[in-house]
Model the fold of this input.
Amino acid sequence: MRQPASGRYVLKFISGKYQGGEFPLDMNQELIIGRSSELEMVLVEDMVSRHHAKITTTNNEIWIEDLGSTNGSFVNGEKITRVRLKEGDRILIGTSIIKLVYEEAAQAPEAPPAAFPNTANRRSVAPHHTQHGATLSGVLSGIIDQVPLPDLLQLFGSSKRTGCLIINSNNSEGRVYLREGRVYAAVIDGNLDIPMEKAFYRMMSWTTGSFLLDTSISAEFEESINESVESLMMEGMRILDEIRAIGTDVPDYNAHLLLPMPLVPPLRNLTPALLDTLQLVHNYRHVETVLNKSLATDLETLQDIVYLIRNDYLRTED
Done:
């Protein structure tokens, strides 16, 4: 761990109702986190116990210990009793994801941030409110750029969350429904014609946008997934790796494809699967629509599209 002499460690709230808040850590400090008003770091929400967790800084080490909280404390998706923290670790307490970051002296503000006013030796976080002034409950929100979806899903799986994870990215809305940490449905833009596993794996590729986990939302579907987050993520990461390995010819999902006129290479050279993909492109043109309509996986369909582009059966629209 870095020596704090030239800077300091800071707890940054990267999601949840305190998103944007910061809490600087001093060395040789014992910090109790909880809902009780007499604590230094007060998180006012139902899922946080009165005395939830303790962070101790000593001898250039930072440790976190769960204090027997009802809903547990998690570090990088793993439920902990006591563990040593390192720079970049993500802590989940209640609906807050907190990242441990190091700031050089030039970055560190001279006074505590306004979000953590120091009153009677207590620093608390100012919660976000709804338009009616009520504190949001059961909602965890943030930005995918700061909390990648694989990390986020691992946190929710390990903490056995129930609710609906709503993801907005590039004008698409994805919904992942969770029950006790297991995924039972995944839907993109309300389109139930897309197989749910396909929808889930595609969302894993989204790297920008926002997310919100609302524990009050549930839904029932005729077909469901009923898989652990871990097993789905393993398959999803494998698919992503293979898509990346195809090369730079993979078109953007929002791109449009065309058949060249005249079409020079002979159709008889194509396999039935390639002909099916070519027909889908002829009918729909839009890459994501072709993926939705294809009976094959996104990986198989993208491999077909790239083959057809490289062999002059298709081109991207200018």
